[in-house]
Specification:
By secondary structure, the protein is an alpha+beta fold. It is built from 8 helices and 16 strands. It has a 4-stranded antiparallel beta sheet with strand order 1-8-3-6, with no helix packed on it. Strands 2-7-4-5 form a 4-stranded antiparallel beta sheet, with no helix packed on it.
């Protein structure tokens, strides 16, 4: 059989070669399109018509495909070897690229192939290729029967995977909807603004956003003496909010505007070393975490439940929940030193603030 040789590719003119595109800062460049051969297609071709070398033709290996065709898959042995290589992920196309989609489809491929082996379909095909004639027809019948059984198995697996994927997608969608609702609620309650990032050293005053009544404050300090952050009103009076009061290095997240006695307009910083502040809207707080260290602020979207907390620090451990509802006390835990206990948690959306100097755990149940 004569295979025409395609004409050599001519290099494109320099003007026709598109310039390389770069992604905007902070975004990964879009991946180049993958021209590799499909694992699913290669496996099916090898399984169904691999004895005629069609799988190797698909991979671009024309020479060995012809040899496999003329020998009926090496009397079945070559057929089995190629099928095993494909299932193991060791098969490559003509230019040495791995097959695309192996990780996503390998489980179904292994199970369907195993089902065929169990029903004797493949062994019948191998014996038919070796014996020829009437036995080949019998092997074909066994192969068809095996394929029908394997198709039933594959259909059940696919239905199961689709159902599982749909359930997971529904859970993710519900979670995303709850998260979006909590962000909207938090920002509408305390105000939305552009984040404020400042750094400096020593004592200072930092103005809070004019259109917000609350938000989160992410702060760091690398000094060795007292580090305190308090909230002041327009007359430089205290709103009763002492966000941070520690000695030495600090890294944590607090919130202003939750239990204030007045409207905060600035932060008073007392420090002996370098510090940084990242002030964000309350809706910028993450979802409630299961564990952490030090001060933290979260949003909660669940139903009324029990909150089981553990604390391994030596100083004050406070957990507050703010729902912005009237007559909601909000102080869930206020202890000094190690703690283990369970307290009632109100339904969300709410903001949960943790004050701690050590490791803590929170479990909603």
């Amino acid at each position: 059989m004569s295979i025409p040789t395609p004409p050599p590719l001519q290099p494109a003119p320099a003007s026709s070669i598109p310039e390389q595109q770069f992604a905007p800062p902070g975004m990964a460049p879009a991946p180049a399109p993958d021209d590799g051969k499909s694992f699913l297609a290669t496996w099916l071709l090898s399984l169904l018509v691999g004895v005629f070398g069609v799988d190797r033709f698909y991979l671009g290996k024309v020479g060995t495909g012809l040899l496999k065709l003329f020998t009926f898959g090496g009397l079945g042995i070559w057929y089995l070897v190629d099928l095993i290589l494909i299932l193991a992920g060791a098969m490559r196309d003509k230019v040495g690229r791995p097959l695309v989609g192996y990780d996503k489809t390998k489980l179904v491929a292994w199970i369907v192939t195993g089902a065929l082996v169990l029903v004797g379909g493949i062994s019948g095909a191998v014996n038919g290729a070796a014996a020829g004639g009437a036995s080949h027809n019998r092997a074909g019948s066994e192969m068809v029967e095996g394929l029908e059984n394997a198709a039933d198995v594959a259909e059940e697996l696919i239905e199961t995977e689709v159902d599982n994927a749909a359930s997971e997608a529904e859970e993710v969608t519900d979670g995303e909807a709850d998260a979006a609702a909590s962000v909207t609620w938090a920002n509408s309650t305390w105000g939305e603004f552009e984040p404020i990032v400042q750094s400096g050293s020593g004592d200072s005053i930092i103005n809070l956003p004019a259109d917000a009544s609350g938000g989160i404050v992410i702060a760091t300090h690398n000094g060795s003496s007292n580090f305190a952050v308090s909230v002041l009103d327009a007359n430089n009076g205290s709103t009763g909010e002492l966000l941070v009061n520690t000695i030495g290095a600090y890294s944590g997240t607090t919130a202003w505007g939750i239990s204030a006695l007045g409207e905060g307009v600035k932060l008073q910083v007392t420090a002996d070393g370098a510090w940084t502040f990242d002030i964000r809207p309350m809706g910028g707080a993450p979802a409630l975490a299961a564990e952490g260290t030090g001060d933290a602020v979260f949003v909660y979207d669940g139903n009324a439940a029990s909150l089981t907390a553990g604390y391994a620090g030596s100083s004050n451990f406070v957990v507050m929940e703010e729902t912005s509802e009237a007559f909601n006390f909000g102080l869930l835990i206020n202890e000094i030193g190690a703690y283990n206990g369970t307290v009632p948690l109100s339904a969300g959306p709410s903001v949960i603030a943790v004050t701690a100097d050590g490791n803590w755990t929170l479990a909603v149940g």
